Inverse folding.
């Protein structure tokens, strides 16, 4: 069995001003793997929402806390892990929303569930924080090795 390739990694302080930077990193990795534009745009939106929720609701804008993103291009999907340092969170406990309901805010988890094929949470092995695992089925194409 071939060993797993190391993930692409990025981290930001918990400040909304940095979300676009980590989003751009995700888009760049997707482009290297020739993922379709529509899939990239949807992934970027879902990850943007997830990181914004982490900063607002898990970290409460405490900039000294970090959000990490690990991107795993797989044969049949792109798997993204978002690591936070907040209290335990279980995405399955967030109620389903009626898309027709008029409300301001509260659509982040709805968008994540709609856009992605899988979304789950688990505690970090350190015991501090969570891992939000996001999976989008697609066919990443590994870049060709460079000649030098």
């Amino acid at each position: 069995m071939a060993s797993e390739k190391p993930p692409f990694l990025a981290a930001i302080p918990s400040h909304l001003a940095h979300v676009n930077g980590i989003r751009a990193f995700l888009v760049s990795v997707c482009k290297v793997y020739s993922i379709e534009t529509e899939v990239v745009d949807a992934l970027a939106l879902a990850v943007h929402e997830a990181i914004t929720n982490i900063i607002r609701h898990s970290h409460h804008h405490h900039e000294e806390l970090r959000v990490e993103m690990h991107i795993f291009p797989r044969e049949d999907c792109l798997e993204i892990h978002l690591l936070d340092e907040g209290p335990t969170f279980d995405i399955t406990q967030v109620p389903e929303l009626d898309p027709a309901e008029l409300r301001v805010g509260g659509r982040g988890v709805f968008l994540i569930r709609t856009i992605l094929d899988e979304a789950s949470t688990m505690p970090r092995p350190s015991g501090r924080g969570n891992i939000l695992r996001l999976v989008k089925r697609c066919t990443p194409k590994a870049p060709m090795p460079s000649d030098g």
User: Anything to note?
Assistant: The longest helix spans residues 37-58.
